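Backbone shape codes:
===
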Amino acid sequence: MHRYILKRIGISLITIWLLITITFFLIHIIPGEPFSNEKKLPPQVLDNLNKYYGLDKPLTIQYLRYLGNIAKGDLGYSLIYKGRTVNDIISQAFPYSAQLGIQSLIVGIALGLTLGIMAALHRNKILDYSIMIIAVLGISIPNFIIGGLLQYFLGVKYKLFPVAQWKGFIYTILPTIALGTRILATQVRMIRTSTLDVLSQDYINAAKAKGINRMGIIFRHILPNSILPIITTLGPLTATILTGTFVVENIFAIPGLGRYFVQGVQDLDYPVVMGTTLFYG
């Protein structure tokens, strides 16, 4: 057991090191320079800024220095958000991403479980076909497109919900739906298949023979056994939804990590991009 644990820890450290290395060099390959948007700054000031942040050093020196700082738990200072460390940005922004991700998980799993069981109970009927069409659309359409459609129809056209920002629970509804749709679609297919397998078991026929009503069969036999696929995929699903909020957060102007990451790539804010990538990894 100890050998297995040490092996897993070693693989994890190697994976994180590879993630750091690849991300570091990829972000530096992007054309452009930090502070390039600061057109009003004279060349001498730009040179001083590059020297202050160590950007005037060779890339290998910057890489080794960054590894040393990571070993001390220091992710550096943002190049764009003056005076703010990446550690502070992550600690302040991640709760928004976490709340949005958890809400999306709850909504997606609850609706996916309900619709999946309904589809299986009405196999090859109109309700089954309708639910599966919704599942296919949910998987096929990217969440940022769903988010844009929700903003237009429910936010702009009918004014039912705020279009963007984060000022209360009502502001989280549209982005939660946008992120939860893919979870819903994935779970519907899994739960439908699992429920059909459960319905073919002998204990279901035995329960019917005993005179147990339909709702009793669903809650006592179908639900506990059909929910197993959700439990087995909950870990990877949680990681996926927390790391998949980048574009949606940017669309809805949510002050989460996704928004900082996208803005960091656009502004070539190396420490922010590196820090958020490392944190998620």
Remarks:
- The CA atoms of residues 37 and 267 lie 8 Å apart.
- The chain has a mean pLDDT of 87.
- The first helix runs from residue 2 to 29.
- The two ends are 25 Å apart (CA to CA).
